Amino acid sequence: MGKHIEVVGGSSVYMGSAKELLEKILPNKRVIVISDANIDRTHRDLIAPYEHILIGLGEQVKSFATLEEVYRQLINMGADRSVFILGVGGGIVTDIAGFVASTYMRGVEFGFITTTLLGSVDASVGGKNGVNVGGFKNMVGVFSQPKFVICDTSLLHSLSDREFKAGMAEVIKTAILGDAELFEILEKTSFKELRKDDSLLEDIITRAVAVKAAVVAEDEREKGRRRILNLGHTMAHAIEKSTSKMNHGEAVAVGLYYITQSALSQQILSEEDAGRIFDLIEQYGFNTTLPVERKQILKAIEGDKKRSGDALHLILPSAIGSVTDRLLTFEELKSIL
Ligand SMILES: NC(=O)c1ccc[n+]([C@@H]2O[C@H](COP(=O)([O-])OP(=O)(O)OC[C@H]3O[C@@H](n4cnc5c(N)ncnc54)[C@H](O)[C@@H]3O)[C@@H](O)[C@H]2O)c1
Prior knowledge:
The structure is a single chain. By secondary structure, the chain is α/β, with parallel strands linked by helices. The chain has helices at about 20-25, 35-40, 45, 65-75, 90-105, 115-125, 160-180, 180-185, 190-195, 200-220, 235-240, 250-265, 270-285, 295-300, 330-335; strands at about 5, 10-15, 30-35, 50-55, 85-90, 110-115, 130-135, 135-145, 150, 305-310, 310-320, 320-330. The chain has 2 domains: about 5-160, Rossmann fold (3-Layer(aba) Sandwich); about 160-335, Dehydroquinate synthase-like, alpha domain (Up-down Bundle), CATH 1.20.1090.10. The protein is built from 15 helices and 12 strands. It has a 7-stranded mixed sheet, with helices on both faces. Strands 10-11-12 form a 3-stranded antiparallel sheet. A two-stranded antiparallel ribbon has the order 7-8. Strand 10 and strand 11 form a beta hairpin. Helix 7 (about 160-180) crosses helix 10 (about 200-220), helix 7 (about 160-180) packs parallel to helix 12 (about 250-265) and helix 11 crosses helix 12. The protein is globular. The model has no long low-confidence stretch (mean pLDDT about 95). Bound molecules: nicotinamide-adenine-dinucleotide.
């Protein structure tokens, strides 16, 4: 059925026209869409045929308050265990839709149509769904795989350049941690080209999803290997906790820059490879200046949920296409970040 990548537990990411794919893979059930107001404006034709619930916009929407509101709406709609939840949107929508579907009446079937680049290469893939608590990102969540994810590059045309660029940060992250060839393709490609060339974009997304799918297949519940996907994310989450000036992808780009600096200064990474990473981050137009003071970032890192006791796993690039996992104490971390 067209190009698709198997993730784990029978879940697959399908590339191609969302409408055509839906006809083939949507189960014959009552479908309830969870989406947001922007999708209702830009892609109404996609969600209008179904009953739908629209959630608000922005990171603060990933909250218990939103979950409760969605559960109440589902109850008012008379949704029972046989419904199919279809999340249509970016990472915020799919995180909420996946969590709601995994918990409503102890779990109903669900799938996603991903509509952002960040969602396509990262948020919609891998079965992590969750909400933020007290400013801490994704503190409460589940591992639960969608039946399917549909990635239709034509839906990304309406994305702003800023949101598209945010997705590129995760693409760059993926290339650094697991696909040296993808890194080379990105070096030879420009942001403008990617915005225009859907087939090139589809190839790049497919490669990035394949890297994530392979890692998730090896370690679905993040006991070890899956941690490598957090490259640059310790600092990114700390930035997001400290300020709303940057979106997730922009914060990831800063995280990638600093972690590369750190790997270089610890002689884990060669000067040549570090230089290529710095150049690629610049090529895609990212601002790598810390948006808040360093001490604020370090304080936020202390609350990172990925800590184990007094230490934290930090993923560092060791070459283009590979990374290493170091368990560091906070004191060590302070001295290298
Ligand atoms: N579950 C995971 O494994 C995972 C992985 C990475 C990121 N995330 C989460 O994903 C979230 C970020 O996702 P995101 O960057 O997709 O943000 P988002 O969902 O907020 O989408 C960005 C903005 O673009 C709008 N939008 C979405 N699709 C559009 C389209 N096709 N055209 C026009 N506008 C559109 C949205 O309404 C929103 O305003 C964060 O909360 C992050 O923690 C989760």
